[in-house]
Design brief:
By secondary structure, the chain is α+β, with helices and mostly antiparallel strands. It folds into two domains: about 140 residues, Electron Transport, Fmn-binding Protein, Chain A (Pnp Oxidase, Chain A); about 35 residues, no CATH class. It is built from eight helices and seven strands. Strand 1 and strand 2 form a beta hairpin. It is globular.
Amino acid sequence: MSRPVTDLATLEALYGQPVAPSIAKEVPRLTPGYRALIEASPFFVLATGGPGGLDASPRGDGPGFVTVADDRTLLIPDRRGNNRIDSLRNILADPRVGLLFLVPGLNETLRVNGRAVIDTDQDLCGRFAVDGKPPKSVLVVTIETVFFQCARALLRARLWDPAAQVPRDRLPSVGTLLAEASEGREGGDDYDRSLAERVRKTLY
């Protein structure tokens, strides 16, 4: 039988009080250690919300692609994607963002909450050009809170354990996923055959 929790008092009684370190680690700015984690990270997930719903978008590039402008400001190039721009649409309506940074091999993650602005200044975008191709915009994130997340989730997932990796051919291909979702209008074998080259040509 379902027993939903519907009030804060019940939830807090269920889980108890947080331990002191879990509170002490949250600060309104980057410490030197937190900055080091961001500069070493090639990947983060960007969480946003807006009238169209919620979005959690993967963002990645070489380590250091997120620039720490100062201890309260991050600069993030918006690299080429599929032009759905779900995250950017949300930010226009609600600037609140959540970022979850991962560093390969490290089981701790870093969480940043703040507010973002979409900046198209030509000089700013030019700072993040790759092969002469600047991003169309740069997210300027003002940090409100930052803290590291303990290793339990990644340890349970064995995320960095090579023995836990799933061979790609054991799961549906991208073309198959797309064909199923579109009821055959898109995707299929031809899509799969051209995917690697298409991605290579459109990384930046």
